[in-house]
Amino acid sequence: MLQIPGSVCRSWRSFTPLSLCTWAICLAPGLLAADDWPQFRGPSGRGLAVSNRALPSELGPTQNVIWRTELPPGHSSPVVVGDRVFLTGIRDKQKLVTLALDRASGQVVWEREAEFEKLEEIHPTGSHATPTVAADGERVVSFFGSAGLFCHDTQGRLLWQIPLGPFKNDFGSGTSPLIVDDRVILCQDHDTDSFLMSVDKQSGRIVWRIDRGEFPRNYCTPTIWTVNGRKQIVIAATLRIVAYDFETGEEVWTVRGVARIVNMSPCVGADGNLYVATWSPGAEANDRINTPPFDELAAESDQDKNGTLAKDELPDGPAKQRFSQIDRDKNGQISRDEYESMRRVFQQARNVVLAIKPGGRGDITRSHVLWEYTRVIPYCPSPVVYGDHLYLIKNGGILTVLDIHNGKALKEGRIEATGDYYSSPVAGDGKVYLLSQKGQLTVLAARDGWDELSRADFGEDAYATPALVDGRIYLRTAGHLYCFGLTKSE
User: Is residue 10 part of a domain?
Assistant: First the structure.
């Protein structure tokens, strides 16, 4: 296990000011550069290539490979800052690790283990190393769910950590932290005790923490939207999108009428508008979740007449299938309040893609939504806006391209890689890269519709989103990290 230095305080486990000052002097040259990919989906979370250098249109296990490195399992996406690539993984099924690789060679430079008391329960397709790290040339911040938030310097020395949880959520944690200016931003939506917090990146001190108790489990990594010179933290979650003031955490605006569970992250287009996609099961027009009122269900199912419903009392159907989500406090019983709250969510949830213009305050559902689109929306992969087009990839390999000016579908169809999709699309150099859960990569020419330029099969599962940095593509599969480029000498 990782040994924490003796100068670390017990409450926040942060180093003494003297130690921080000494390290800051050593790290001063390591500032975030224009050709870095510092967080989930890259700069500003947009999923767009850094630099205009040419990217390969054909790549695979043996094509245009600069290097390949074996990694422990994990779903976190590669982050590229300076001469390092950062990821997380779970080694030997029980060690939570942060890794730094040399960007040029792929060699592992350091690996650090995170302390934890117990691995939390996760979704069958999930991983205990799902959140992507955030890095800025001085700090590398990793998040491992209930194990907490860990901050290292670029040499792998632990600076501080914040214990969190345990979270009440049998699907685990998937939202990634951000480093923005001198803050670390983390949102955690679980079945109880959801929150958004801002942390001083130097010391690990919590600057502010906002209660989000109205929101059950969600997995949207926030995006930063700068409007009139002021940063907003935008989060899409159950039934509404919310923007918070970056400095204070106060709610700035909201848009209502979105999905029940949100996995996708918003993105800001080059036009300055915000694009948000939300979808969850049971909210399609022809396939909605319908549940009877609590009193009606309890009259037939509350066998012990205690006023609550246990799982074995429920008939087969939506309530029993989603028992762990409705039982938010995890006491093994569904109360009237828990049931009716989720029933309201089932009734109001809408699967929708929205374009939102900047400048609103308060409830801007009617005033600032430019358009909406309600067909063939993904569950997990976040959309990418490239030029005038928004790309959506849905399970089954169903690809949709929307015109960002009006929300009209320019083309919709099925690509050859027809499996499930967790990795988000990324784009650059006139190309869009799509990676399926089965490890099948499709490269598209970004045109009004699309043309498939190439396909490749990596022979192992893939959940991470690739990074496109300075003419290189960093792609993670279940067991490896690849670096691709047009030549080895570039």
Answer: no
Q: Can the peptide bond before residue 166 be classed as cis, meaning omega within 30 degrees of 0? A: yes
**What pLDDT digit, counting tens, does each position of 148-162 carry?**
999 999 999 999 999
pTM score: 0.92
The answer to whether residues 184 and 149 touch, using CB atoms and an 8 Å cutoff, is yes
Domain range spanning residue 303?
Answer: 287-348
Contact 52, 71 (CB under 8 A): no
- Report the C-alpha gap between 89 and 71 in whole angstroms: 8
Give the model's pLDDT for residue 33.
66
| 45 φ, ψ (degrees, to nearest 5) | 65, 25
Counting the structural domains of the chain, the total is 2
Single-letter residue type at 418: T
Residue 23 pLDDT level (bands cut at 50, 70, 90): very low
SS3 458: coil
Do 315 and 440 share a domain, yes or no? no
- Looking at the structure, do residues 343 and 418 belong to the same domain, yes or no? no
Q: Are residues 299 and 242 in the same domain?
A: no
Count the neighbouring beta carbons within 10 Å of the beta carbon of residue 371.
Answer: 16
State whether 343 and 400 are in the same domain: no
pLDDT at 7: 31
Detail the DSSP E strand segments found in 260-313: 267-268, 274-278, 283-284, 287-288
Q: Is residue 3 part of a domain?
A: no
What's 315's domain CATH number? 1.10.238.10
Give the mean pLDDT of 379-395: 97
- Mark whether 101 and 113 lie in a shared domain: yes
Q: Write out pLDDT tens, residues 50-78.
A: 999 999 999 999 999 999 999 999 999 99
